[in-house]
Amino acid sequence: AGYDVVGDLDDLRWRPPPPESRLVSTVTSDEIAEASDWTIARLQEQLVRRQPAHPAPAVGPTDGVPGILELLEHIRAADTDARPRAAPTQPAASGRDRVKRSIGSLRSR
């Protein structure tokens, strides 16, 4: 169970960055906190709309990325009528590693 994926590998092809883009290293902790706060608030709204069968997690604006991941898991569970899965005990793979692994599995088909 999960979500349908739309697109193809061309969507992942490198393109030159837009002129208004900036390096990740220039993003401040305050900007990350602001984006996390906003994201958590929007995800909480989405979870409430789904009327989950399991209690919503106690996630607040200062919980950052772990809070975002927990809310996403509860949304997935609500959408699939499943129980929310426990947070992984090992550090999660980076986005780059997940994409490389996905591309590798596509090539082996």
**Average pLDDT reading:** 85
Q: What structural category characterises the helix and strand content?
A: mainly alpha
Topology as a string of helices (H) and strands (E): HHH
Radius of gyration: 17 Å
How many strands in all? 0
Helix content: 40-55%
The helix tally amounts to: 3
- Tell me the fraction of residues in β-strands, as a range: under 5%
Largest sheet: none
Unreliable residue stretches = none
Shape: globular
Q: Report, as a whole number of angstroms, the end-to-end distance.
A: 21 Å
Task: Give a short overview.
With 109 residues, the chain is mostly helical.
For this entry, give a set of tags.
109 residues, 0% strand, globular
Describe, in plain words, how this protein is organized in 3D.
There is one protein chain. The chain is an all-alpha fold and 109 residues long. The protein has a domain at 25-86. Helices cover 47% and strands 0% of the residues. It has helices at residues 29-49, 64-80, 95-107. Helix 1 runs parallel beside helix 2 (64-80). The model has no long low-confidence stretch (mean pLDDT 85).
Write the layout of secondary structure elements.
Layout: H1 29-49, H2 64-80, H3 95-107
Helix pairs in contact: 1-2
